[in-house]
Amino acid sequence: MIPLLDLKAQYDSIKDEINEAVLGVLDSGIYINGPNVKALEEEVARYCGTNFAVGVANGTDALVLSLDVYGIGAGDEVITTSYSFFATAEAISRVGATPVFVDIDEDTYNIDVSQIESKITERTKAILPVHLYGQLVLMDKIMDIAKRNNLIVIEDACQAIGGSYKGKRAGAWGHAACFSFFPTKNLGGYGDGGMITTDDEDFAEWVKILRVHGSRRKYFNEVIGYNSRLDEMQAAILRVKLKHLNTWNEKRREIAEQYNNKLKSLDIKLPVETPGAKHIYHLYIVRHSARSDMVAQLKEQGIACGVYYPVSLHMQDAYKGVYDDGHLPVVEQVSNETFAIPLYPEMTDKQIMDVVNQLINLIKNIR
Questions:
Q1: Contact by Cβ (8 Å): 255, 238
Q2: What's the CATH number for 7-102+109-242?
Q3: What is the pLDDT of residues 16-66, one digit of tens each?
Q4: I want to staple 228 with a disulfide (CB 3.0 to 4.6 A). Which of 56, 122, 200, 236 is the partner?
Q5: E-state strands within 234-281
Q6: Relative orientation angle of helices 59-69 and 201-211, to the nearest 10 degrees
């Protein structure tokens, strides 16, 4: 079986570094808000090109905290995409605001920027673009729209650390940006973890306060906050892995290029890289109208696949009766046709060719 992602292979490649970092934390006796958390925050800020980064418990909390600190809540609207992991919309609803969904670009699957301004009302407070599958949204246009309409921009960059657009990395475009260190991400821990980047010092300070129960000093609580801390163990692990991230992302791009070259003549839609963007292929997504049959047959041949995303956000049961079917036609069609094939830095040439050959045989014979 060729897995969608092989985390064990990645661990084996850096085992000595990881083990040393973990043992160092255990020996220190400092497990919460220790030196590794502070160092990782500085390193991620430097990597993304921002002045500040604040570690939190996970990517979902990063979104919720960012919205909360910017005062977005009941009665407010936040414009976003309907084609993403549920946390994108969930975070907006969790703070009491309303997600306003926009259709997607058919090539990149990112939010269709040309449709955003038509969704802006007097209640709109923010835009929350998602850099899906490792490719950035057209952020220069997003920021222009936000500036003209006095809106906050919070990047959902959970799948895109290391990706860039026009030379600027994910996390450095918006007023704030949110990252996930879930194990399957390009930079993943061995548990949950998240990070928020920003150039806004006051915003960063308030995130730090809210992540520890609304407190600057222990037992002195200024506001109602959260318990959302990045633990020291995960920070130590992520510091090791951050050193390898560029190499891993480049390897992902190399494998994607091999797929592109070998599959381009087939009747299947392949990823499209935006001019000026550096796609880091968190997932390699293909699209075909016979997705269900293809996924089933590939799995029978030992090729793992992942369906991303089978139900668009506005059609989830959690929003039943709130949004109408059919008002986002591209999203609704794409959700029935896209799936991921294996792509991870440790893939061998043989594994790559096995995936390619199985896809070629399948598409030639599919009806």
A1: no
A2: 3.40.640.10
A3: 999 999 999 999 999 998 999 999 999 999 999 999 999 999 999 999 999
A4: 56
A5: 277-278
A6: 120
* Per-residue tokens: 232: 């020291």
From its phi and psi, is residue 94 left (phi > 0), alpha (psi between -120 and 50) or beta?
A: alpha
Cα angle at 158 between 255 and 46, to 5 degrees? 90
Which one-letter amino acid corresponds to residue 180? S
Cβ 25 vs Cβ 34: under 8 Å: yes
**Could you tell me if 181 and 192 are in contact, meaning their C-beta atoms sit under 8 angstroms apart?**
yes
> Regarding beta strands 176-180 and 194-198, do their DSSP bridges make them parallel or antiparallel, or are they unpaired?
antiparallel
- How many Cα atoms are found within 13 Å in the side-chain-facing hemisphere of 226? 22
Residue 203 backbone dihedrals phi, psi, to 5 degrees: -60, -45
Q: How far apart are CA 178 and CA 50, in angstroms?
A: 13
**Rama region for 191: left / alpha / beta (φ>0; ψ in -120 to 50; rest):** left
Domain spans of the chain, in order of start: 7-102+109-242, 245-365
- The CATH fold assigned to 245-365 is Aspartate Aminotransferase, domain 1 (3.90.1150)
